[in-house]
Design brief:
about 290 residues, five-stranded antiparallel β-sheet, about 30% strand, globular, binds adenosine-5'-diphosphate, binds 5-aminoimidazole ribonucleotide, binds aspartic acid
């Protein structure tokens, strides 16, 4: 196979040029970072599990009408995605207090919010992804009101769907982070697409019965074996065999290679909804 061109080396993934224009390959690495890469480790099998979990969740979201970048899994560490222009805003949805909101506002961890809280962070590693509001987003032109409205609406839908999905396998969705991108159609119409990944790297998931943390907080705060938590999530989702694919820190390559393909059939025929960039019309003026 011809040498592929790496376009971007991220903290958890490498982005390669895709086989066709407008496509990319996301390669899921085993690297784990926290606190803006202050803390770093390589954890065997993490990339395989995140690739699989994210592919599964993205296809489920596509099925409820959330347009996603995911096209299909290529192998245990790679997936083919549609290339988008990433909007530099990280949307965080919180159902239960944990992480930065506890520090910032003095809320007790585990406090259940009456309704979900949406926050925006400016995606800029050098600045440590600072929290921002709509005024910053519009003033600096990171997104316009139509785009932001679409991102927020889709984030609430993702939250509703994922709450049910995880509840069904005994996990509580505490919070998560989403990234969206712009995709232009043949007539220059604009679509907002869910991109990046949805995995325990960017969702907090607690066991419903024991409150045990199954996500990246295990790594952030040295709470136990990270891969064991991710593997348990993948098992409960029915994505890997019950006896697992990572044992004692070693990946069972044979079992990992035998995992089935995940394909986003629906994305092929989906009818995208473009964001109305025209001037709002006054219905009283005929
Ligand atoms: P980081 O950039 O924070 O280190 P990753 O290691 O996860 O994060 O790298 C993946 C990068 O690819 C992210 O910057 C993400 O915004 C970007 N990305 C994700 N999906 C797409 C896509 N469909 N098109 C273009 N870029 C994408
Ligand atoms: N997140 C935010 N930036 C990067 C990531 N992964 C995710 C965390 C957590 C949620 O966003 O994984 O699920 C909120 O993070 P925090 O640190 O603001 O509490
Ligand atoms: N992904 C970010 C980092 O690597 C933040 C985090 O997940 O804690 O620093």
């Amino acid at each position: 196979m011809a040498r592929r061109k790496a376009l971007y080396e991220g903290k958890a993934k490498t982005i390669f040029e895709g086989p066709e224009p407008g496509t990319l390959i996301q390669y899921f690495k085993d690297d784990a970072t926290a606190f803006n890469a202050e803390k770093h480790d390589v954890i065997a099998g993490k990339g395989v599990l995140n690739n699989r979990i994210s592919a599964h969740i993205m296809t489920k979201l596509e099925a409820i009408g959330v347009p996603t970048h995911f096209m299909r899994s290529l192998n245990m560490r790679e997936q083919l995605v549609r290339q988008v222009d990433i909007i530099p805003i990280e949307l965080v949805v919180r159902n239960v207090a944990a992480g930065s909101i506890c520090k910032r506002l003095g809320v007790k961890e585990g406090t259940v919010f009456p309704y979900p809280i949406v926050e925006y962070y400016y995606k800029k590693d050098e600045l440590g992804d600072p929290m921002v509001n709509e005024n910053h987003i519009f003033n600096f032109g990171w997104a316009d009101p139509f785009e932001l409205e679409e991102m927020v609406a889709q984030s609430f839908r993702v939250n509703d769907y994922l709450n049910g999905l995880f509840e069904g396998i005994g996990l509580r969705l505490v919070d998560f982070k989403l990234e969206f991108g712009r995709l232009w159609g043949d007539f220059d119409e604009l679509y907002i697409i869910l991109a990046d990944e949805i995995s325990p790297d960017n969702c907090r998931l607690w066991d419903v019965k024991t409150n045990e943390k199954m996500d990246k907080d295990r790594f952030r705060h040295d709470l136990g074996d990270l891969v064991e938590g991710y593997q348990e999530i993948a098992k409960r989702l029915g994505l890997i065999p019950k006896d697992g694919i990572i044992h004692g820190g070693n990946i069972d390559e044979k079992a990992a290679c035998e995992l089935g393909e995940i394909e986003n059939e629906l994305a092929k025929e989906r009818r995208l909804r473009s964001v109305n960039k025209g001037k709002p019309k006054n219905p009283r003026k005929a």
